[in-house]
Write a structure and sequence with these properties.
The complex is a heterodimer of chains A (157) and B (289).
Chain A lengths: L2 E8 L2 E8 L4 H8 L18 E4 L2 E4 L12 E3 L13 H8 L9 H11 L8 H8 L9 H15 L1
Helix pairs in contact in A: 2-5
Chain B lengths: L6 E3 L4 H11 L3 E4 L5 H6 L7 E4 L9 E4 L2 E4 L5 H5 L2 H6 L1 H7 L5 H4 L4 H7 L5 H9 L2 E6 L2 E6 L4 E3 L2 E2 L6 E8 L6 E7 L9 E10 L2 E10 L6 E2 L1 H7 L9 H10 L11 H25 L1
Parallel strand pairs in B: 1-3, 2-3
Antiparallel strand pairs in B: 4-5, 5-10, 6-7, 6-10, 8-9, 11-12, 12-13, 13-14
The chains are: A alpha+beta (157), B alpha+beta (289).
């Protein structure tokens, strides 16, 4: 097995380290870099809880290797709220609409919502809901998440 | 649920990748988008000695036009292909099928070539390549091979690719502008693998069918070309089309199996039904247009 030096940006901060080839991005973010907001559910790409943003795209961090993000810009749920604690619009929408129960799937859901509403993007409610099919909520709290998505889509219009 | 140890290599060119594959002597797996391979590694169903990451080879990416065909670089991401203008114009059914491949998050990483080279029998991209008559270009240090998609698949996750070969292009022959597209998939949830799926294209010239390409997915150990139905469709007038008879012929080529999601009989019944309905709708759309 091989080890690799990597350097990347996580939530705007430079991070350098050495990783074993087989280490997933999710394990790297949690264990090496300490971003435990990345939740690891199924570890094989089904549940969506580990979703993070890599170079502007929502991806499942259990389906990437840490060595593959060398030079990349990664954003986790810890990077969503403003430094003064003001919640990201997606976080606020989930909070207002009771869009989380146990909270395990929430960081992944948030990253998908955040990337689809980034900048001036005006996603339709349908496209947001379709993208959320990549997330499983085992509390089955989908109606709250749907309301939050609806609010977020409405706000962006 | 953690992958077994492996060496990781990320070549920057096709030549370098082929040399590394040759050196590995069959012990390497190629990592494209990783949206199916990474789970196989995590579940230890796949335990390569070397993981050869081809994400850093720029010449494997992108869509281009070649003589009489559209060439898709195997590392073209599914999300990029979904919004590609050339593909929307030339291969509308491929774009339609892509929206059923996995989820937003997996399409951001997953590639066209990865799906085709892996050969999951219920996946959309292998069947689409078979239906449209695509040709797969494979390279190794020994040379270049061009393989028809219909000859590419041997069984679930088994293809004619040799361990030292790398897929370097997928060429989809031109279908004339305005051809009829056929696509229908039945799955338990959006983004799941299909229980039954049908994809294809038809060309109509003054009310007659002059070209047909149809394939099933989730209906056997490989994508299944509906050869008998294709042959029966050729030269037919739209008016006198025996759609139920064609559906029976299309099903005759399939070899579905029982699994914990559905029985073979269910797949055949649903297959017959979606064949009739999709063909009727597609031809109806054409007549109305």
């Amino acid at each position: 097995m091989s080890n690799h030096d990597i350097e990347l940006t996580i939530n705007g901060r430079r991070f350098a380290g050495s990783v074993e080839a087989r280490k997933t991005l999710s394990d790297f973010l949690r264990i090496d870099a300490g971003y435990t907001g990345v939740h690891v559910g199924c570890e094989h790409g089904v549940c969506g809880a580990c979703t993070v943003i890599v170079d502007g795209r929502a991806v499942r961090s259990c389906l990437m290797l840490a060595v593959q993000v060398n030079g990349a810009e990664v954003k986790t749920v810890e990077g969503l709220a403003a430094p003064d604690g003001t919640l990201h619009p997606a976080q606020q929408a989930l909070r207002d609409e009771h869009g989380l129960q146990c909270g395990f799937c929430t960081p992944g859901v948030l990253m998908t919502m955040a990337v689809l509403t980034a900048g001036n993007a005006k996603p339709s409610e349908e496209s947001l809901l379709a993208a959320l099919s990549g997330h499983i909520c085992r509390c089955t709290g989908y109606q709250g998440i749907r309301r939050a998505v609806k609010r977020l889509a409405g706000e962006n219009l | 649920m953690k992958a077994a140890p492996f060496d990781y290599q990320a070549p920057g060119s096709i030549e370098e990748a082929c040399a590394l594959l040759a050196d590995a002597g069959g012990g390497a797996s190629v990592l494209a988008g990783g949206q199916t391979l990474m789970p196989l590694l995590a579940l230890r169903m796949s335990q390569p000695f070397v993981l050869l990451d081809i994400n850093k080879i720029p010449t494997l990416q992108g869509v281009s036009r070649i003589e009489g065909a559209t060439r898709i670089g195997p590392m073209t991401r599914q999300c990029e292909a979904l919004t590609n203008d050339t593909l929307a114009g030339r291969l509308p059914v491929l774009v339609q099928a892509l929206s059923h491949v996995g989820h937003h998050q997996t399409r951001n990483r997953g590639t066209i070539g990865g799906s085709i080279a892996l050969g999951e029998p219920a996946a959309e991209m292998p069947a689409t390549a078979v239906a449209l008559g695509a040709v797969i270009e494979a390279r190794s240090v020994r040379g270049v091979r061009r393989i028809a998609a219909e000859d590419f698949y041997l069984g679930p996750y088994m293809t004619v690719l040799e361990p030292d070969e790398l897929v370097t292009a997928i060429d989809y022959p031109d279908w004339p502008a305005g051809h009829v597209t056929i696509f229908r998939e039945v799955a338990q949830r959006p983004g799941d693998f299909a229980l039954v799926g049908l994809v294809g294209a038809l060309v109509l010239e003054s009310g007659k069918i002059t070209r047909a390409g149809l394939a099933w997915f989730g209906m056997g150990p490989t994508p299944v070309k509906a050869r008998q139905a294709e042959a029966a469709l050729l030269g037919q007038n739209l008016d006198g089309l025996d759609i139920e008879g064609l559906a029976a012929l299309a099903i005759a080529d399939t070899a579905p199996f029982d699994d914990h999601h559905a029985t073979a009989e269910y797949r055949r019944t649903v297959g017959r039904r979606i064949f009739s309905r999709t063909l009727r709708e597609a031809l109806g759309r054409k007549e109305a247009a």
